[in-house]
Design a protein that fits this description.
127 residues, mainly beta, 4-stranded antiparallel β-sheet, globular
Length: 127
């Protein structure tokens, strides 16, 4: 059974950086398109970044373009979200997601396009 475990969240001041990691168990990590989503209090879960199985293709939400980047290491079974120039509006619980059991070509940006979710990690940005 595949599991996703996020880490790297925390509290930073505006302008700071954090790198989130999501470690996946199992031997077929390279078969899964992966994504990062976030959910602020009282708001719906929203897409932040996605990456294809190989890592060649990535996509970012407009709100994080130029500040965030997504990458993956298929040897370490880990996907990363590098977050720079953080702002208070980036405060949210960040979730890692995997697309499992369905064909994966390219990147995906909708919640219902993913099948497995991590437990989330809190990111708090103070002004």
């Amino acid at each position: 059974q595949v599991q996703l475990v996020e880490s790297g969240g925390g509290s930073v001041q505006a302008g700071g950086s954090l790198r989130l990691s999501c470690a996946a168990s199992g031997r077929t990590f390279s078969n899964y398109a992966m994504g990062w989503f976030r959910q602020a209090p009282g708001k719906e879960r929203e897409f932040a970044a996605g990456i294809s199985r190989s890592g060649v293709s990535t996509s970012l939400a407009d709100s994080v373009k130029g500040r965030f980047s997504i990458s993956r290491d298929n040897v370490r079974n880990t996907v990363y979200l590098q977050m720079n120039s953080l702002q208070p509006e980036d405060t949210a619980v960040y979730y890692c997601a995997a697309r499992i059991g369905r064909p994966s070509r390219g990147t995906y940006s909708e919640v219902d396009e993913y099948d497995l979710w991590g437990q989330g990690t809190q990111v708090t940005v103070s002004s």
